[in-house]
Amino acid sequence: MELRHLRSFVTVAEELNFRRAAERLRMSQPPLSQQIKRLEQEVGVALLRRTTRQVALTAAGEAFLTEARRALRAVQEAPLAARRAASGQTGVVRLGFSGPTSHEVLILMTRKFREHRPRVRLEIHGPVYGGELVTRLTDDEIDAGLMRLPVAGSGIQARELTRHNIVVALPAGHRLATREEIAMADIQQEPVVSHPTNRGAGIVALIHSAYLAHGSSPRIVQEVPDTHTILTLVGAGVGIGFVPSSASHLKVPGVVLIPARDIPPLPLALAWRAGDPNPALHALIDLLDEIAEDCGPGAVTA
Fold first, then answer.
1. pTM for this structure?
2. Per DSSP, what are the bridge partners of residue 97?
3. Domain limits for position 156
């Protein structure tokens, strides 16, 4: 079925007059009549009723007119859709994140991206452990991930967006709960509730390094899957915990968060596969400088 036949039929259906339709199409009337006849033969039913006085649509013609117009619109819109996709104006970005401590940046990024690319669908995947995020990224299950630096894995690029100070989570009645900050020397023997040591969480390596610098290792009494559970068990008196300062919005009763003096800030970055051709992803990457600036003044957030 040729597009020119569809255009001819739609024109005849709008004019209900072959002479006027032929004038609109800038062709003579006999070839137009032949096109409509061939179209009816191809469809297998009569689309028009012709008399010496008038032309009218059959019931089949009414139904065919609706679909013919839709097909012609689709043909007209296809080049624009292709150009929009190529420029990152449309498409899909699958974005993973590792936990509630990245929620603030996730919200800011989502809002900013929707403002700049309202036609792009941003699919949020998570929460997922940092190590698993890298695996999903490598396996093309997500296009980008908010994760803690450093990012292990080859062929991955990352852009740091912000840094979060590490705070010590203590039960409200703990002997150190009124301190303005806590040194590692003060908590060497404290029981610790930790993220799993085998899931690639960036904070785990950071905490172990801080203990190692003081000639010891954390006395982990329980490993739990997420930051909120760490805070819950700290509130229950199971032990102390180490979390990014961005966890303060979780507001777990009976838990106080005090800055850790001897632990460096934990960077949060967006990571993606190097060379990924997805134009919508590159539209997000182009916004990262602006997003990083909106995360707050300076490199470190308190």
1. 0.72
2. 146
3. 91-163+266-301
Tell me the per-residue pLDDT of 260-295, one tens digit each, with 9 for 90 and over. Answer: 998 999 999 999 999 999 999 999 999 999 999 998
* Residue finishing a domain among 50, 68, 86: 86
* The residue type at 72: L
Nearest to residue 262, comparing CAs of 195, 207, 200? 207
Tell me the average pLDDT across 87-109.
89
| 155 and 221 within one domain | no
Same domain, 74 and 148: no
Same domain, 142 and 172: no
Q: Within this chain, do residues 130 and 112 fall inside the same structural domain, yes or no?
A: yes
The predicted-structure confidence for 224-270, as pLDDT tens digits, reads as follows: 988 899 999 999 999 999 999 988 888 899 999 999 998 999 999 99
> Once rounded to an integer, what is the mean pLDDT over residues 146-155?
84
Are 38 and 122 in the same domain? no
Task: Output the pLDDT for position 298.
Answer: 37
| 216, 187: one domain | yes
Q: Are residues 149 and 283 in the same domain?
A: yes
| Domain stop point among 66, 86, 106 | 86
pLDDT for the residue numbered 200: 57
Asked if pLDDT for residue 153 goes beyond 80, the answer is no
